[in-house]
Structure formats: C-alpha cells, structure tokens
Amino acid sequence: MVTYTLTESVTGGGGTHVTITNDPLHDDSYDDGTYDVGTTVILTVTPATGNVFDHWAGADAASITGSGTLIDPYQIIMIKDMVIQAVFVYIEYTLTINGDVRLASTSNNPSQSTYHYGASVIVTVTSLSTDNAQFVKWQDANTDNPRTIIISATPANNVYTVTFKWRKIYVQTFGSAGSGSTGSKIYKECFGTSKPALVDPTDVKTWGGSGKGYNETYGELA
C-alpha cells in the first residue's frame, strides 16, 4: 500500500493547535502523520483563549474542504505528501473606563485602542481639578491609582467605572458688627442636582469681602 505524509503546523495567535483524526469510514492507522493513499483525514482546529482560527495556509491549503462545523468538518484526502498550516489571530478587546470626564482623565500604558487577552494595562486616573474632585475607588472597591488591569476574554469584564468625591463649598455669612445676628447658607455646591460649573476655591475665599468666612466638606456624588 502506498502511503503519504501529512505535515501540519500552526502560526499566529498563541497556544493554538490542530487535531488530526482519521475519518471513521476508514480503518487505516497512522504514525507521525503517515496515511494510506486515499485516506480522508479530519482536521479540527482548537484556538487558545483569546484567539480565533482565521484560515488555512501551506502548499496544500486549497485541498482542504469543509466549513469546520460538526456536520461539515475540515478534511483533506491523502493523494500525495501534503503540507498545511492553520493560521490563528488574536481577538482584539477594548478597555473602557467610565467616569465624569469633566473632572478627570485617564491614561493607559501601553496606550492602544485594543488589547489582547491577558495583556497588562496600567491605568492612571488624573483629576482635572484637584481642588474640586478626589479619586475614591473603582466599581469593585479597588482603590489603586494607578491600577494594573489584566484584559479579560469576557468583554463585559473590561469595563471599569471610577468613583469620585466632589468638594462642596459652604459659606458662613455673619451679621453686621454689633447686631448679634448670624446666619449660614450654602454658597455653591459642586455637582449637585443641577450640576453647576466648578467652584474656584480662590474666588470663594474672597467672596463677600471682609467679615465673612467659609468652610469646606466633601461628599460623594450619588
């Protein structure tokens, strides 16, 4: 009986492989990819996490038939020595950082539009106005800043939200000298229900002239 050798390899992506099995209709055994002439060989491609099979290459790629499904598997008929290669590619994942862009910016290192599964990304949150906003935590209660994020193969796990504390400015208004009357009121609250513009603490300190003072507290935005 004439025999031929099937040589297979993989390229691209990472940790991928091809499983080669004989068609159940044939009772031929093989060793090191050697088959009797006319044997139909079933090819099953198995990508690693974060990878996907892209196409066949190699000198005899055109001899492969099928769509790769259970009812229509990839297969090749051994009529000569054959050389094939399975080409895999990485799946690209987007890292999304949510938060109020008016008060903070984020930077990624490395800075890319997409990442591969398992990539390590250092995300730094920078307050645009440290006088009016403070970084508090991420949605999972992590308080690291910068924070190292490992890209997941589940897209929903690559979405993060930043929580801040906003500074609320309160002004204590005093009555006229000798009147004995005092009163207090909120001068302006940063990012309240109506979300007004940021307060400049320097302006607040001089608001109303002499005889009036102010104090500050922090509160989390609901």
Would you give an account of this structure?
A hairpin with a 7-residue loop joins strand 13 and strand 14. The longest helix is centred in the last third of the chain and has 6 residues, at 201-206. The model is unreliable at 24-32 and 169-222 (pLDDT under 50). 3% of the residues lie in helices and 47% in strands. The strands form 4 sheets. Strands 8, 11, 13, 14 and 15 form a 5-stranded mixed sheet that branches. A 4-stranded mixed sheet has the order 3-1-7-5, with no helix packed on it. It has a 3-stranded antiparallel sheet with strand order 2-4-6, with no helix packed on it. It is rod-shaped and about 80 Å long. The protein has 1 helix and 15 strands. It is mostly beta strands and 222 residues long. The chain has 3 domains: 3-90, no CATH class; 96-164, no CATH class; 167-220, no CATH class. The protein has one helix at residues 201-206; strands at 3-11, 17-22, 34-36, 40-46, 51-57, 74-77, 82-90, 96-98, 104-109, 120-127, 133-138, 147-150, 159-174, 182-189, 213-220.
